[in-house]
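Incident log, structure service

09:12 report received: a user says their structure output differs between two submissions of the same chain.
09:20 pulled the input from the user's history:
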Amino acid sequence: MTDRSLINLATPLAAARGSRLLSLALCVAMLSACAVGPDYQRPPAAAPVQYKEAAGWRQASPSDSLARGAWWELYGDQQLNGLIEKLNRSNQTVAQSEAQYRQAQALVRSARGAFFPTVDLTVGKNRSSQGTGSSSSSLTSSSSGIRDTYTAQAGVSWEADIWGKLRRGLEADTANAEASFADLAAMRLSQQSELVQNYLQLRVIDEQKRLLEATVEAYQRSLKMTENQYRAGVSGKDAVAQAQTQLKSTQADMVDLIWQRAQFENAIAVLIGLPPAEFSLAETKTIPALPEVPLGLPSQLLERRPDIASAERSVMAANANIGVAKAAYYPDLTLSLNGGYSSSTYANWISVPNRFWSVGPQLAMTLFDGGQRSAEVDRSEAAYDETVAKYRQTVLDGFREVENYLVQLKVLEDEAGVRQEALDAARESLRLTRNQYKAGLIAYLDVVVIQATALNNERNVLSLLQSRLIASVQLIAALGGGWDGALQVSENK
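09:34 re-ran on a clean worker, output below:
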């Protein structure tokens, strides 16, 4: 047979071999296209058409230049904005969540790496000995049975994802990473909300302190006037005692505000990552403005609340884990290729006569495991049901929180109007009573009662303002951090 005939004969053989390899590759690809386990679908959750307590709210008009997500800028306080920036950089609780998110990202990269072949390289020396099985061997040299083996080996292995186990695992890890990112956003929002609430309460305390300082000055003047009248014989000793009691009680209330303010100041220091001894906030003469609350859309609550997003991603991960558990019923196909050199002498180690290689697929499956796989599938399905229930409960809790804060703000707004009317009346009553006392028409005891009533109304108005500010922060947090997106959608309708 000529060389040309050999070539002509080898060509169809090579073509047939290539065709078989191509067919095998196509079969593997087609099998890899399927993945066991259910495909994810978002669980239905109860969502009302509109908030029950939204009726009666006027449409607000936030600044168009307000940065998306910078909800704390609604309060118009530059010092507060600076504190939030420090929190975003240095808060240690947020740093923990951020590190957890990076761990979840690393797991996703590891899951992606499972789709690629694994390449191993092994180089080593093995020293071994084997007995001759004859008693005469004891008469020979002790080194006659010792042998050195030098080995250099490279191997490539790849697991074909026929049943989608790797893909479901990647799907689960990706969903967990997204849930971790949502947890990070939720933790950041929670810490921001806590800082803003502490800051607003601290500023209200500053205003209460200014009120008490002004009241103490007024009481000191009243005490001096009463003492003068006592020396002149116009009033009795009891009036002086009453004036002193009123003055000292108010001064004690001022002292009580010191530790309250210190607690909020120390809490803010920790939130921005500083020890309390290295942080202080100077008093200001203004309280941040109360933002106007626009109408909200319940359908957007799912999109803006990070805790709800995290709960849904957990459902996705649990759904994918069902596929991973079911894939354990099917065999694993691994393709491997190994080759290298092995020699008993270092000099001729890397040479053609010492080479070896092996190639071939490996199909492995468990025939009997005592029900472990079915138990794992049942566990995965139960875990999925748990995450679905948790997701639905998180949605319900979200709507409940929004409804609570909406009605709280609405009631507090109505109460504020009545409280202000009561304060105006108390101030007028105090003015008239003081004039009557100066004219000698009434006793100082009557003045004391009216002064206490007026001060109580002043403090009630400030406490009510504090409650409204705190409720506004809580509503913003319940909506996922602001309402810009909801406002834009409602305007486009």
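09:41 both user submissions now match this output. Likely a transient worker issue. Closing.
09:42 reviewer note: The chain has one domain: 35-127+146-492. The first strand starts at residue 118 and ends at 129.
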